[in-house]
Structures are given as C-alpha cells and as structure tokens.
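Quick note —
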Amino acid sequence: MQTPSNVQSRTPMTIIVRMPLLIVLLISLNALAAGQQNVGLVDMAGRVTNIESHTGDDKWLVVMLWSITCGICAREVPVYSDFHDEHKGRDIKLLGVALDGYGKKKAIEDTMRRWGMRFPTLIADLGLFAINYKLQTGEQLLGTPTFLIYTPKGKLVANNPGPMRTSALVDYIAKRRARE
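Predicted structure written out below.
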C-alpha cells in the first residue's frame, strides 16, 4: 500500500513533540469556555501561564505583542528593552508576548538574542490570543506590535495597535494614575 506524498507519517517522536502543544490547546479551550482571559500562553520553559500572574505587584504592566517577522518590532524592541531596564524596579514592568506559537520557540529565542530583548517574554498561539484580545478589547487584533496596558491591580485599561513612543506611554500612565 502506498502513502500519498502529501501525508506525513506519525512516528512516536512527532507525537511526543506535538503533545505539549495539544495540552496547551486543550487547557486553553477549556479556560476560554469557562470565561477566563489570557489563556493559551506558555513561558519560555513551556509552562502554561497567563498575563494576570504578572500583575498585582503595585506596578503597571505593559504587554508588547510581537512576532519574529515584524520589522517594526525589530526597531522597537531595543527601545523598549532600555525602557524596561529604566522602569522595572520602580513603577512599570514590560512583558513580551511572541505570537509565533511554541513550535517556533527556537526562532523566538534566536530573535530575542538578535534584537537584544531584555524583558521577559511569553509565547502564544496567534489564533487563541486573537480570540482573547477580541474578548478583552472588543476589537480585532490587527498585527504587531500591539501594546496592552494593565493597572497595578491587573485591569486592562488600554490597547494600542502599532508602534508607540515610550514618552507617550509614560504620559498615558501618569494621567491614568492621577485619575485613580
């Protein structure tokens, strides 16, 4: 019996390699069904996590959504790495979310090194994250970079598709802080 050339064989190794992705997907779909937000994220070690676990420590959280093919991100990351270094011990934390999926972990790590990224990054499946984004913002995810801004209590208060000057970010947070 011949196998068509476009059908990939499923060896035990390919099944084992894809198993963590399947587990994350099943956990994420279950969490979405339960109404939870920011599901489908894994850290660089492959552990399931969420954005909420990075909030609640009296610091504002800025999440930068990026991808390995984003030219604007390549230009923005060094600026935001400097911003992260300047603010991380004080008032604002920065967290990256690579939207390339865990299957591209090596390429994500290589890109982080090449771009000089010095802030922590999680990995997300673009499709699941786009659903989360729509649930939280009421808008479609348009591309990368996109920024999400969370209060120290973990409330999402702003989203910004496209590049954003760090001075505009600081001004926005100062104005929000004054209102709270």
